[in-house]
Amino acid sequence: MTASMPRPGDAAADRPSGPRLVTSTAPIIEIEGLAKRFGSLHVLNDISAMVSVGRVTAVVGPNAAGKSTLIKAILGMVRPDRGRILVNGLAVGRDADYRRGIGYMPQASHFPENLSGREVLAMLRHLRGPSAEYDEELLDTFALAPELDKQVRTLSGGTRQKLNAVIAFLFRPPLLILDEPTAGLDPVASGILKDKILRCRSAGASVLLSSHVMSELEELTDSVIFMLDGSIPFQGPRAELQRVTGEDRLERAIAALMNGVGR
Amino acid sequence: MRSTAKILRYQLRDVLRGRWVLVYTLLFLVMTDALFRFGGSGDRVVLSMMNVVLLLVPLVSIMFGTMYLYHAREFIVMLLAQPVDRTSLFLGMFGGMAFPLAGGFVVGVALPFLWHPWSGFGSALAVLLLTGALLTLAFVALAFLVAVQFEDRAKGFGVAVLIWLLSAVVYDGILLVLVASLWRYPLEQPLLVLSLLNPIDIGRILLLLEFDVAALMGYTGAVFNRFLGSALGKAVALTALVSWTVIPFLVGLRRFRAKDF
Predict the structure, then answer these.
(1) Do A110 and B77 lie within an 8 Å CB cutoff?
(2) Cβ neighbours of A163 in B, within 8 Å
(3) d(CA A206, CA A222)
(4) In Å, how far is B109's CA from the nearest CA of chain A?
(5) What are phi and psi of A77, to 5 degrees?
(6) CA distance B30 to A239
(7) How far apart (Å, rounded) are the C-alpha atoms in residues B56 and A206?
(8) The whole model's pTM is what?
(9) ipTM for the assembly
């Protein structure tokens, strides 16, 4: 089997064994038959999906489509009723070690309120154990240093969001999960973040992100997972999306999907 | 387990930074010291403190425990995105709350005994400290169970207060009514079992058995002296009290592991 001849079944076929050639379609996240309900509400309806290595995949869809629940299920924060998720070949829900390879930027900030930014960073470093290289680039480009000694509670929403971004990238994770990453950031900061995401992709990282800002997705995304009412009516690369909807621009293509085109 | 130790460390630092543990310690210190100054001898101070401990320790433990876990929600959510398993997290949080509370109580009550001359039961003081510490663990475990179970904070606090009222006040009232209305029947054994079902009653029994003032407790005291003797009675009561920590903790842990954040 060679990397120059990717066939559709390849990635799945050679996943279980050790080192392998990374083809462009190899999955870093595999989701099979995932179902979750909160009370009588089916938030995830037997969904299956795949996130490829080295690509930026966007989860899009209207509000309450199940995007956040999907992301939280991948992180192990929401326990699914059925189905399974593999991250880098490791099953989610057994132990927590697979999260070593994930950098997560939540939509809302979750910080222990009475710690300073510096203490939060020190705590996370200590928790993950010694690492060769921390990626503190964003700390400099966001010019966060003067804010780090203040208690997180006193920081503005945008600054907290920057701190979240720093944390997501800090351990150079092979998989980045970014939930509405630029919400609350000013244009300069969101530009910095987008550049960072693209640089990480070039360096081989995989990215799963959700966003409502279509212009931002236009710049970043290679693949789209479109969610609606807890199902995934469409998923695939941009070219495929364009073919199915006949729309060039991502915004119009997504709008077409919402209106039922391609189903 | 390594991450449990780490989480415990952060939580201890966090709890000690908020000064309320210090206030809690000083409260016991001042009360114990005052009892000495009002002319109490060692064992009378212990006996007076007993009633304070049996009411105050459970109340503070369950209220602070519930508040603390609700307050730590952000911290929990942040750590759940890290390679930390939920059991380590829950264990670390529990220790981070229960140890400072139990330690504050022990230090606050014990210190005045160092600078006041006293005579009496050294073992009584030991049992008082042990009972208070175990009651702290039990009510923090109950608090965690409540906070994990109820997403709504107001409801959680309500249930916490209810649990305290029930075990500190209402339960004994019910037993009293039971005894008064069924005085014709031999109630020793049912009463013994019923007392073991309430952690605060267990604490009281442990202390009174130690003081040899079981007569003060009248009926129940006689029952316990007769049925359990001394060594066996203590063993049974201690086991029951420890179960009040272990069982709520395990149920809470189970809920915590299955919870959606």
Answers:
(1) yes
(2) none
(3) 11
(4) 30
(5) -80, -35
(6) 75
(7) 54
(8) 0.85
(9) 0.80
